[in-house]
Amino acid sequence: MAEFAYEPEPAGAVVLAPGETAREIAGKSPWRLAGRRFMRNRVALAALVLFVLIVVVTFAAPLYAKHVAHADPFANNLNGTTVVDGKRIEVLQQGGGPLKLGETPIGPTWHSNFFLGADNQGRDVAARVLYGGRASLLIGIGSALLACLAALLLALVAGFFGGPVDVILSRLMDLIWAFPIFLLAISLATVLLTAPDGLQWGPVRVDPSSLWVPTLIIALVYVPYVYRPVRGQVLSVREKEYVEAAIAQGASNLRLMFSEILPNVLTTVIVMLPLMIATTILTESALSFLSIGVQPPKASWGTIIDDGQNLLYSRPWVAIAPGIMIVLTVLSLNVLGDGVRDALDPRAKLRIKG
Amino acid sequence: MLVFVLRRLISLVVVLFAITVLTFLIFFATPGVDPTRSLAGRNPTPETVAAVRHQFGLDRSKPAQYVLMMRRLFVSRDLVSYGNQALKVVPAITAAAPVTFSLVIGAAIIWVVMSILTGLLAVVWKGSIWDPLLMILALIGISMPVFWLGEVANLITQDRLHDTFLFSWVPPLGYVRLTEDPWQWFLHLIIPWICLSVLYIGFYARVLRANLLDVANEDFVRTARAKGLSERRVLTRHMLRTSMITFVSLFGLDFAVLVGGGALLTEVVFGLPGVGLLTYRSLVALDLPVIMATVIYGAFFITIANALVDIVYARLDPRIRPA
Predict the structure, then answer these.
(1) Is B15–A175 a contact, with Cβ atoms under 8 angstroms apart?
(2) Which of A193, B38, B56, B137 is most buried, judging by how many CB atoms fall within 10 Å of its CB?
(3) pTM of the prediction?
(4) d(C-alpha B182, C-alpha A322), whole Å
């Protein structure tokens, strides 16, 4: 459901961004140039500020829950009460819905307690959205970083050694690539949930309800998306004169890979990173919405939207609020990604899709 | 050309085989996974578990299990669901496929038309406020999770504004077969089509705009202008036509991915009984054979579609055929 492709410029080409003169960029290192270009891009800066703000606010979730909402967003609160307009009322009200049947949680009070209302179990939705954001961002950022790191290492090894190593790694990547990403993630997530006692690989044990499970699954399915362009870059950088010069100086393979080739393919990965995070956050939310991502009692934006599905017509904010957070986060990352690309690689063709 | 086609077909067969093996391994050979758990009922006795394992051939070696599973999936087509043994997997998929096709084809028509319009208008209006405005809308479109958009659409059209003249025509969630009542089929699918296409409209409009701006500096565009062609003709006949190459190849891939299972979330939110909803139901029940079959169906569809696209491309453009 999400796709992503990147055609980097041939490494080493000097490119002028629109409105830049050769005099302006003379004598500046590529990183300084990129920083300069990025700082001039007001839209991208605004997106960065928005993203950092979202991260800070969601990571302050425990503070919000403790000092503002005065509620535990994970413990069920079926018999809880709260004070609205000076009156003490029950969080779950009898027959609050249009059919006057069953229990309906209170709607948004727009005050510190139950700002966005409560969910089916009487828990504070606003606090849950913040906590959920923490999980979504951790998984999104973690899996994007892991995917980029793994792809970078594999691409360095495959591109540098070539031959059978390259053939095997690239075929393996092609095979993962042939799968519809989303279905692959679904298969892995479902299968891991059927493992009753968690997974055991030698000394490593992963609990099925741990955040590591969705993180690793999402990281794995996106590895080929980063691997392909980076391997291409490694192949072209390997033939450069400075690599030949290092070989002539007797540099070891490790040194060639990590201090000659790696710095020159790193831009490709950095350009892809914000867009990868946007994509992985969307994937995480989809898996959690299907209840095969983050497992209760933990919450993420996707699971809260799923919870809100049953309350959609009576208490729509439960589902709407986390969705707005996802849109804001992914939008800021997409704009940020455009800005980073324009700064680092002004002529590259980059396309993303959530 | 014949050599190219043969080669492509051989690699296709190898990839298809690898897909079945990998899927089988994921579902039945992941350490710690016990497919019988959902089968044997609650707190089963060891004898029941052993009987169930024998019935489904799970007590045999892995290669034997693989062969058995694939034979029941492709040759005898009598692979049954673990949860509901009356449900045969292959007929269930073939019955669900037309729903998925209805959803994806309609959405594809909307997204192609709308994204070409948006892309063209953004280029025509470049320099005015409309171009960035359209592109911001496109970005918002690609940043929305489709299942959330679908829920918001349901909230508006099924509940909040359902009693107004705007959305009183919207039928309840679900699906009506085209052969049964074409008009109801159409009405049931309009909102899902729009929701599914929003992401692609945004994405394709952005790609098309970038491509159009790229070719705007090409020599043949200057020549066309120099010949005195109208701006409109230059844009549609020269620039748009060249830019459509990327567009078309992207379209082939995306269409295949959606039919192959990418429309799952849309089907779940709107209650459309397609392959995606089938996958979702078996996923909630942890019904491994059905999920395995739908994943193999999706991966097969995508891989075969890609191979066909490659062959058609090679037919159209001889430069692609590798030596």
Answers:
(1) yes
(2) B56
(3) 0.88
(4) 37
pLDDT at A56: 94
HSE at residue A135, side-chain half, CA atoms within 13 A, is: 27
Using an 8 Å CB-CB cutoff, list chain A residues near B284: 291
Whole-angstrom Cα distance, residue A254 to residue A242? 15
Residue A353 has what pLDDT? 41
Say if the Cβ atoms of B143 and A3 lie within 8 Å. no
**If residue A330 lies in a helix (H) or strand (E), which one and from where to where?**
helix A317-344
Assigned token pair, B263: 């429309």
pLDDT given at position A218: 93
Per-residue pLDDT at A352 exceeds 60: no
What number of other Cβ atoms are within 10 A of residue A265's Cβ?
23
Output the CA–CA distances (angstroms, integers) from residue B28 to A177, A353, B24, B288, B303, in the order listed. Answer: 21, 33, 6, 9, 23
**Whole-Å CA distances, B56 to A52, B50, B59, B72, B283:** 52, 10, 8, 11, 19
- Helix or strand or coil: residue A149? helix
In this structure, are residues A105 and A118 in contact, taking their beta carbons and an 8 Å threshold?
yes
- Which residues of B fall within a CB distance of 8 Å from A217? none
Residue type at position A230: V
Of A129, A87, A131, whose CA–CA distance to A109 is shortest?
A: A87
Question: Which tokens hold the place of A161?
Answer: 């050694």
| Mutation site for A-interface testing, chosen from B148, B278, B286 by largest number of A Cβ within 10 Å | B148
Within a 10 A sphere around the Cβ of A85, how many other Cβ atoms?
A: 7
**B318 Cα to chain A: minimum distance (Å):** 23
pLDDT for residue B267 is more than 90: yes
* Backbone angle region of A202, left / alpha / beta, with phi > 0 → left and psi within -120 to 50 → alpha: left
User: Taking CB atoms and an 8 Å cutoff, what residues of chain B touch A326?
Assistant: 143-145, 148
- The token duo for B312 is 């058609």
Q: Chain B partners of A320 at a C-beta cutoff of 8 Å?
A: 152, 155
List, in order, residues 6 or more apart from A176 with CB less than 8 Å away.
Answer: A184, A220, A221, A223, A224
Whose CA is closest to B209, among B125, B142, B265? Answer: B125
**Complex prediction ipTM:** 0.87
Q: Where are the beta strands (DSSP E) in chain A?
A: 3-7, 81-84, 87-90, 92-94, 103-105, 199-201, 204-206, 349-353
Torsion of CA A66, A67, A71, A73, to 10 degrees: -50
Percentage, residues of chain A above pLDDT 90: 30
Residue A231 tokens read as 């391997």
HEC per residue, chain B? CHHHHHHHHHHHHHHHHHHHHHHHHHHHCCCCCCCCCCCCCCCCCHHHHHHHHHHCCCCCCHHHHHHHHHHHHHHCCCCECCCCCCCEHHHHHHHHHHHHHHHHHHHHHHHHHHHHHHHHHHHHCCCCCHHHHHHHHHHHHHHCCHHHHHHHHHHHHHHHCCCCCCCCCCCCCCCCCCCCCHHHHHHHHHHHHHHHHHHHHHHHHHHHHHHHHHHCCCHHHHHHHHCCCCHHHHHHHHHHHHHHHHHHHHHHHHHHHHHHHHCHHHHHHHCCCCHHHHHHHHHHCCCHHHHHHHHHHHHHHHHHHHHHHHHHHHHHCHHHCCC
Q: Is the peptide bond before B132 cis (omega within 30 degrees of 0)?
A: no
| CB A136, CB A277: distance < 8 Å | no
**Predicted confidence band of residue A102 (pLDDT cuts 50, 70, 90):** low
d(CA A279, CA B96): 28
Contacts of B211 (CB under 8 A, 6+ apart): B242, B243, B246, B247
- The mean per-residue pLDDT over the stretch A256-273 comes to 89
